[in-house]
C-alpha cells in the first residue's frame, strides 16, 4: 500500500509539472516592444525611426484610445521579417529634456496588447562660441509690487525651460513659449502674505534669479550679492536706480509709497542674483 501511494504521488507530481509548463512559457514571453533611434542632433519635427518586435503577423498601430505625444500623425508600419518598422514625423512642440510617450497596440481582437514607446528629446547644444548667461536682464515683470490676491506676469528669455517658485504663490505660473527662447507665465499671490516675499525664477541649466521685498535679510538663503536700497521708484523710468537699470527691474527696486500701500499689504520687490556674479 505504501508503494501504491508513492507511485500515485509521483504521478500527481508529473501532472502538476505538465500543467505549469504552458504558464511558465507564457510568463517568459516578453511581449511586444518598441524602440526608437533618437540621434543626438534630433530637433522637434524631425523624423524618428521606430522598430517593433513581438507582434508576429499583427501590424502595430497607434490612434484612437491610445496616447500619442511624439508623432504628428499615426505612423504606418511595414513588415521586415519578424520586425515591424516605420519612420514618423514628430511634433514640432516637443521640448528639449522632456520625455514623451506614445502607445502602440497589436494582436488579434481577443488578445490585443498595448505597449509604450518613450522618447527623451535631447537638450540643445549651444553653437560654438554661444554663451548664454541668465540674469535679471532676461526677466521682465508686469509689476514691481506684490499685492495680496493680485497677479504678476513674468516674461523670461531662456533657451531651455522656465519655472518660478514662491511660498507666497496661491497659483504658480505655467510658462508657455511665446517666441523663440521666450516664455511667459502669470502667478497669483495668496490673500495673506508673509512679512517677507521672495520669488525665484529658474532657467533650466542656467541658474536662477531671486526677487525679494527684503533682499538684505539673512534668512532668505543664498541669493548672491545683496542689492543696495535705491531711491523710491515713482514709475518714471530708470532714474535713481543705478547704471544698467531697466523698467522691469533695475539695480534696486525700492519700496513704493509704503504708507499708502501698507494698509493693503502691498510690497515692492527688490531683486538679487541667484548665483554670485563672475568677477
Automatic annotation (TrEMBL):
Residue spans of biased composition, Gly residues class: 233-243
The protein's name: Uncharacterized protein
Transmembrane segments: 248-269
Highest taxon of source: Bacteria
Lineage: Bacteria, Bacillati, Actinomycetota, Actinomycetes, Streptosporangiales
The entry's keywords: Membrane, Signal, Transmembrane, Transmembrane helix
Ranges where the record places region Disordered: 212-249
Signal peptide: 1-25
Amino acid at each position: 500500500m505504501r508503494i501504491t501511494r508513492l507511485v500515485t504521488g509521483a504521478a500527481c507530481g508529473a501532472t502538476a509539472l505538465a500543467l505549469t509548463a504552458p504558464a511558465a512559457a507564457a510568463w517568459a514571453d516578453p511581449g511586444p516592444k518598441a524602440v526608437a533611434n533618437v540621434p543626438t542632433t534630433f530637433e522637434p519635427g524631425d523624423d524618428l525611426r521606430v522598430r517593433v518586435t513581438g507582434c508576429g503577423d499583427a501590424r502595430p498601430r497607434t490612434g484612437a484610445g491610445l496616447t500619442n505625444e511624439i508623432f504628428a500623425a499615426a505612423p504606418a508600419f511595414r513588415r521586415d521579417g519578424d520586425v515591424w518598422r516605420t519612420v514618423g514625423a514628430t511634433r514640432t512642440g516637443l521640448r528639449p529634456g522632456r520625455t514623451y510617450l506614445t502607445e502602440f497596440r497589436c494582436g488579434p481582437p481577443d488578445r490585443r496588447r498595448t505597449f509604450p514607446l518613450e522618447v527623451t528629446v535631447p537638450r540643445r547644444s549651444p553653437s560654438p562660441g554661444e554663451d548664454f548667461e541668465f540674469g535679471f536682464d532676461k526677466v521682465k515683470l508686469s509689476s514691481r509690487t506684490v499685492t495680496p490676491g493680485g497677479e504678476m506676469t513674468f516674461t523670461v528669455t531662456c533657451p531651455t525651460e522656465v519655472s518660478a517658485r514662491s511660498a507666497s504663490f496661491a497659483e504658480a505660473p505655467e510658462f508657455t513659449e511665446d517666441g523663440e527662447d521666450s516664455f511667459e507665465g502669470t502667478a497669483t499671490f495668496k490673500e495673506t502674505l508673509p512679512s517677507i516675499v521672495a520669488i525665484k525664477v529658474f532657467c533650466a541649466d542656467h541658474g536662477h534669479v531671486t526677487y525679494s521685498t527684503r533682499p538684505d535679510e539673512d534668512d532668505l538663503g543664498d541669493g548672491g550679492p545683496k542689492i543696495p536700497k535705491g531711491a523710491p521708484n515713482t514709475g518714471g523710468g530708470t532714474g535713481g536706480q543705478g547704471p544698467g537699470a531697466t523698467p522691469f527691474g533695475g539695480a534696486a527696486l525700492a519700496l513704493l509709497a509704503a504708507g499708502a500701500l501698507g494698509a493693503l499689504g502691498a510690497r515692492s520687490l527688490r531683486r538679487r542674483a541667484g548665483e554670485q556674479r563672475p568677477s
